[in-house]
Amino acid sequence: MDDLLNIFQVLLSILIVVVILLQVKGIGSGFFGQAYSTFRTRRGLEQLLFRGTIFLVLLMVAVALVRARVPDLFQ
After folding, report:
1. What pLDDT, in 10s, does the model give residues 30-71?
2. Cα–Cα dist 19/10, whole Å
3. Which of 14, 21, 28, 42 would be 46's cystine partner, CB 3.0–4.6 Å?
4. Residue 65: Cβ-neighbour burial (10 angstroms; 0-12, 13-18, 19+)
5. How many H helices and E strands in the chain?
């Protein structure tokens, strides 16, 4: 079970990186571009990516806390 949680955490971290890179705006290829300095609302796919990132990070933290608090459960 511990190996399954390790794999799940690795997949979550890769997914978080991909979702964050999809959100980057700016000049060039889209990677490491400049963000807009003005305030504006998120709509459509941008809002979905933003909320998805928050969900994935909270899921990653929850899995990490479960593994840290209950290590004997998975042995």
Report:
1. 555 555 555 566 678 888 888 999 999 999 999 988 888 776
2. 14
3. 42
4. exposed
5. 2, 0
